[in-house]
Amino acid sequence: MIQTVATSPFHDQNPGTSGLRKKTRVFETPHYAENFIQSIFDCAGDIVGKLLVVGGDGRYLNSEIIQKVLKMAAANGFGRVTAGQNGWLSTPAASNLIRKYSAHGGIILSASHNPAGQAGDFGIKYNVANGGPAPEKVTGAIYQASRTLTRYKIADVADIPLDIAGERRIGDMVVEIVNPVADYAALMETLFDFAAIRRMVSHGFRMRFDAMNAITGPYAHEIFEHRLGMETGTVVNGTPLPDFGGGHPDPNPTYAAGLYTLMMSDAAPDFGAASDGDGDRNMVIGRDMFISPSDSLALLAANAHLAPGCRDGIAGIARSMPTSAAADRVAARNGLKMYETPTGWKFFGNLLDSGLVTLCGEESFGTGSGHVREKDGLWAVLLWLNILAASGKTAAGLVRNHWRDYGRNYYSRHDYEGVDAGAATAMMDDLRARLAALPGTQFGPLTISAADDFAYHDPVDQSVSEHQGIRILFEGGARIIFRLSGTGTEGATVRIYMEHYEADLDLHNMDTQEALSPLIAIADEISALKLRLNRLRPTVIV
Ligand code: VG1
Ligand code: CO
Fold first, then answer.
1. Residue with CA nearest ligand 1 atom 11
2. Could you count the other beta carbons within 10 Å of the beta carbon of residue 76?
3. 100-147 confidence digits (pLDDT tens)
4. Are 8 and 85 contained in the same domain?
5. pLDDT tens for residues 286-338?
6. HEC readout, 254-306
7. Is 472 in the same domain as 342?
8. Which end of the chain is less enclosed by CB atoms within 10 A, N or C?
9. Are residues 95 and 231 in the same domain?
10. Is residue 112 annotated as a catalytic residue, yes or no?
């Protein structure tokens, strides 16, 4: 029954910020997915008899690749696989299953916010026993293994029906198909005051949640509509579609434009939220108040004690380097430890595992805590709902109070998507070469105080990750960051992050782009990005 199939290596199976992402048609190349899955198993340590979790965001190819994972897991000696019914598991739900059932690891099939379908993207992520994304030393080993792979092992059996819950077998290995929502929803009930949120709902509180035709639909229907009693129709685009309805499930004002427009209109409900393709990220919006993810992290950190799961307070906060320093102010005032990591959730794992931090966040709409080892979109929405219920304030009111108490970190990210990769790399290289000469340079009232290529020294395992983004820091705390995305599949995406701190309450109501316009101009002047990238304006402004 077990076949050993001869194969030859592919040379592009290098996982990026979050797993291996390629065009769907690349994953349809014969042996392509099998090679990568075998490389994972070859680097996963002693897997014989162990439990593996598998599921994905429901995109095109999800079920086909799950069948391959099941058959290859059996052939490689796993004792048991837990898979989500229909092949569905959100990324945080997969992380929860790995932790709850002490799995050896998990395979999550997703390219997150990248468009799905035959013409879109597909991805494979590997998570380790703590439930979190494989750290760089593991992804590096997987890449090395993939470069010399000559065979993979697969069981020659019929497909396992994924739509029926219950146990099956492939040879000695048990396959258990589970409800993808149940364990996750149960965990959420332990972390938040569902009764208080239900009371708020019964007093007329209304929300719109946009699942963007991706994986969070089933979770959101169950949690918001069934368990919290919100009206039917609260969740829109709530059925996962193989092509995500042709959309781009990136929860930001550009790609969740319908929700954004509603929340800025007179018809807005009290609160709006959206998730990305695999459910690990979130956008939250108040009535007439877009909430920047960096502000959301800071506000959640300042108010987390209102939720039962954080009743005893939080140990510390970690944020990715490009995320604004709004959370640093909360940490400083409350005597909490604060860590600055490279972009990507894998860098938070050690900090969470060793109890150094409780809350983590990224400017890209990712927030999470120690309850799993992934960022968690619905968790963040529920924490917001819990804080709204416990405080009795509106979302906009909470944000304004936060700015009054801590000052406002004006913050924006400009993305130039799908630009020429050579031009983007050359721009970054040139900037890097000029870093040493930048300190002291003046631009009007702004003076550069420091400039570097961010390197992270992990305080737990002492590993060093270099070239994690170019930082240009100004006296007074303003910053400009340049980074290349590690999740795209076409050309390059340049991300430019700008931040400026404003303590003056009278200046808290400016338009973000206007408040940042001096920094936006400096970013262009320093890098000549528009000329070099041959673009007049960013693809996405957040
Ligand atoms: C982007 C975000 C990063 C996030 C990553 C994966 O990476 O910037 O913050 O962790 O996506 O998120 P990059 O390298 O393109 O900037 V997800 O939701 O796509 O798993
Ligand atoms: Co995601």
1. 487
2. 22
3. 999 999 999 999 999 999 999 999 999 999 999 998 899 999 999 999
4. yes
5. 999 999 999 999 999 999 999 998 888 899 999 999 999 999 999 999 999 99
6. CCCHHHHHHHCCCCCCCEEEEECCCCCCEEEEECCEECCHHHHHHHHHHHHHH
7. no
8. N
9. no
10. yes
